[in-house]
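Weekly structure sync, notes
Attendees: PL (lead), two postdocs, one rotation student
Agenda item 3: pending single-chain targets
PL asked that the sequence for the first pending target be pasted directly into the notes so everyone works from the same version. It is reproduced below exactly as submitted, 68 residues in total.
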Amino acid sequence: MSPKSRGRKLQVKVNSDNEKAVIMVSGDVDLYTSPEMRKAITKLCKKKVPLVVVNLKDVDYMDSSGVA
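Predicted structure, written out during the meeting:
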């Protein structure tokens, strides 16, 4: 975690098969941690998984870079 990050370290876990993927995100998503989440989503897009669900239930904080 970057020293500038607000709080809890970002964790990204992916469960997938050929039909769908679920990305479980927890911690803080901000300018310093959002590239990790973006990397997981991009990887699934390149695999052309037809359904991707991003579960943000355990995200404590997200700034605009997490939305972008």
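Discussion points:
- The first strand starts at residue 11 and ends at 16.
- Residues 11-67 form a domain with the Transcription Regulator spoIIAA fold (CATH 3.30.750.24).
Action: rotation student to compare against the earlier draft before next sync.
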